[in-house]
Amino acid sequence: MQVEEAEDVQCIDVREEWEASIASIPGFQLFPLSRMEEWETKLTTILDPQKPTFCLCHHGIRSQRMAQLLVSKGFQEVYNIVGGIDAYCRTVDPSVPAY
């Protein structure tokens, strides 16, 4: 899949706020899993189930849980970023701090 514009996709970060304050990637919206009760019922109004959706966490475990939740809510094209922000900072952008 080729993505030409940021508006064509939506990016979700399920880490905690303290984690995002250490390292983050521009364009990712924060949906901490620990606060799921606050946003779970609103997901289909906050996000577009028709857009490709990328899920991120520290290593890929929590984001996989979010990806499964999105699929269960009717999202069609959901991707878990395997290795999470830890792999991203080590292999893609070393300016993003590792923690």
UniProtKB/TrEMBL annotation:
Q: What is the name listed in the Swiss-Prot or TrEMBL entry for this protein?
A: Adenylyltransferase and sulfurtransferase MOCS3-1
Keywords, ordered alphabetically: Nucleotidyltransferase, Transferase
Please name one Pfam family that this protein belongs to.
Rhodanese
Give the Gene Ontology MF terms in alphabetical order.
nucleotidyltransferase activity
Q: Does the keyword Protease apply?
A: no
Name the source's superkingdom.
Eukaryota
- Location of the Rhodanese domain: 5-97
Question: Does the keyword section mention Transferase?
Answer: yes
